[in-house]
Write a structure and sequence with these properties.
The protein has about 80 residues and is an all-alpha fold. It contains 1 helix and no strands. The radius of gyration is 31 Å and the shape is flat.
């Protein structure tokens, strides 16, 4: 009595000649030729955007500085007392 073994289906891969970084099918705006109808941002708009980003990051920056200062003080006291 021979048992019939289940054969696995053989997977075949076909090479279409493209590479992993093939971007030929991507459509979109190029860096050199921007949208001619879109006005450029003024200096005031750029400054407002910059200042808004700085205000958003001010509190997290202070939190990180406080944590680093506390860690430094703990390590300093730990190594000076031993």
């Amino acid at each position: 009595m021979s048992k019939k073994k289940d054969k696995k289906e053989k997977v075949r891969y076909y090479d279409d000649g493209s590479t992993v970084a093939d971007m030929s099918g991507v459509k979109g705006r190029r860096l050199s030729g921007g949208d001619p109808y879109r006005p450029r941002a003024s200096a005031k708009e750029k400054w407002d955007t910059y200042w808004h980003a700085v205000k958003m990051m001010f509190v997290p920056m202070l939190v990180v500085l406080v944590i680093l200062s506390i860690a430094y003080m703990i390590l300093y006291l730990l190594f000076t007392l031993t």
